[in-house]
Design a protein that fits this description.
The protein is 39% helix and 13% strand. The protein has 350 residues and is an alpha/beta fold. Bound molecules: 4'-deoxy-4'-aminopyridoxal-5'-phosphate (PMP). 4'-deoxy-4'-aminopyridoxal-5'-phosphate (PMP) binds next to α4.
């Protein structure tokens, strides 16, 4: 039986996504989804498109979406790449840029990066973190390999300044730096997108899953120099010609044309985050400063798996990793979701 499988498969360790449980109603604070719905206009556009034309393949290049994204950042369409979630962009980036090479990322970051390393035979270099899970800039700065930075970082929520990232880009213009900005719309700092014309070695990866409330639609994108984008397209066209279906394309276009609504809901998420961080801090928890839509929290005296179980027993799902024994990650929900979380936290910390 073992002979049926490739040597590569035998080496793989798949990514474990956050649970999507249906056994009872949970307050779901485990996968950083936006607690607010997509805008009404997006929902109407989806209903409008969900008709007879679904029998036809979608535009393989998602041209309308490319144009709207390009316009948002004042760049050309050939500097934009779209994909089925930003995980797919990341996978294609590993294939196009890191396969067979070394690639660096901080030791505690998005846990899909090491999975892609194995899938694409990239060798991971993981500069150490500081004892408090902040990024050790000295260790990162020393590193000479192509680099991936989730900014804000996940699961810690830490934001590095764009100036610092530019300083890394400046150091070696032949070294690719991929900045994964899944959570940047919750930060008090603009995207690195404005630097893609200046730095040909910068690839910015973004998603509609979080700040555009479209995790269920699976839409991600990258922006960068046209040579980088052409490379991603080469991989994409060896893999799947139609990564974005018709409904995904129209929902992303409509979402970008309704920016005001998204600014409004994301400001609400940020305000709730700051309030809850203060409340948890008052209860005696250690909360890392977060510029994202989640908090990285230590409930002193308890290990992370005990905390996870205590919240789950109360119907609240949060995220825990065995390799992080002391902290858990809590996504920001509605104010009422977070009031329930605080009530349970009070019981735990009594
Ligand atoms: N990057 C980071 C840092 C993430 O946390 C996530 C969400 N799990 C992703 C990328 C992928 O998001 P999506 O595929 O939904 O666009």
């Amino acid at each position: 039986m073992n002979n049926l499988f490739s040597d590569r498969l035998k080496k793989l360790t798949p990514y474990t996504p956050g649970e999507q449980l249906n056994d009872k109603r949970y307050i779901k604070l485990n996968t950083n989804e936006n607690p607010y719905p997509p805008s009404d206009k997006v929902l109407e556009a989806i209903k409008d498109k969900a008709g007879e034309t679904l029998r036809l393949y979608p535009d393989p290049e998602s041209k309308e979406l490319l144009s709207v994204i390009a316009k948002k950042y004042s760049i050309d369409n050939d500097m934009v790449f779209v994909s089925n979630g930003s995980d797919e962009t990341l996978a294609f980036a590993f294939n196009a840029f890191f396969s067979g090479k070394k690639v660096a990322f901080p030791r505690i970051t998005y846990s899909f990066y090491p999975v892609y390393c194995k899938l694409y035979d990239a060798k991971e270099e993981t500069p150490e973190m500081n004892y408090d899970y902040t990024i050790n800039k000295e260790a990162v700065s020393k590193c000479k390999y192509p680099l991936i930075i989730a900014n804000p970082n996940a699961p810690t929520g830490e934001l590095l300044s764009n100036e610092y990232i530019c300083s890394l880009l400046e150091k070696d213009k032949e070294r690719l730096i991929l900045v994964d900005e899944a959570y940047i719309d919750f930060a008090n700092q603009p995207s690195m997108a404005e630097y893609v014309k200046k730095y040909k070695n910068l690839l910015v990866v973004r998603t509609f899953s979080k700040s555009y409330s479209l995790a269920g639609m699976r839409i991600g994108y990258a922006i960068g120099d046209k040579a980088l984008i052409a490379a991603l397209n080469t991989v994409k066209n060896c893999f799947n010609s139609y990564p974005l279906d018709r409904l995904a394309q129209i929902s992303a276009v409509t979402a970008l044309n309704n920016q005001e609504y998204y600014d409004m809901i994301n400001n609400k998420v940020k305000a709730t985050r700051d309030r809850v961080a203060k409340q948890l801090d008052k209860l005696g928890c250690t909360v890392l400063p977060s510029q994202s839509n989640f908090l990285f929290v230590k409930f002193g005296g308890y290990d992370s798996s005990t905390i996870y179980t205590k919240f789950k027993d109360e119907g609240i799902l949060i995220r825990q990793w065995n390799y992080i024994p002391d902290y858990v990650r809590i996504s920001i929900g509605t104010d009422s979701d977070m009031d329930s979380l605080i009530n349970t936290a009070k019981e735990i910390m009594k």
